[in-house]
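Many introductory courses stop at the sequence. We go one step further.
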Amino acid sequence: MNTLEQEQILLKGLAGNDKNSIESIYRENYGTIQTFVLNNNGSVDDARDIFQEAMIVLFEKAGMDSFTLNCQIKTYLYSICRRLWLKRLQQLGKFSTQVENLEDITPVETDVEEHEKRNDDFILMEQAMSKIGEPCKSLLDAYYLQKKNMQELAIEFGYTNADNAKTQKYKCLVRLKKIFFAQYKNA
């Protein structure tokens, strides 16, 4: 099951007041919001309040038939929380910009669009990685995600030396780029 399907299940669960869905959304997203609020003149209580308000907005939206989430839940919640927190700072006098001008400074729609674009690119890359096949998938995973060096890759994948591992990694990367950009072009 891919990320978008999981997110849709969480949204349906949220709309249906499913305890597990609500807890999952909290668990996966609250830490980011708390960090944002704490780093921007707020307290843990402020973060809880802001996150709770955002969850209410998401809950209400999820219950509407016309609502379609075009980004990840975390992107949507972050955007709501960011706007709510900046407005609260302005009300408390800790943020000097006028609320009318807040749209110019924090264009949340632009942030959401950028996050959606980046999310779409990640989904395309995930699909390309699934199509690349073995041993390329494992080799690229070991190098880029597990941060293994060429000598470790040579030993793990049975190459005669680090240079051969490097050459194979390069070939796999070229293959991955071809698959990715072919999908990207069609998307």
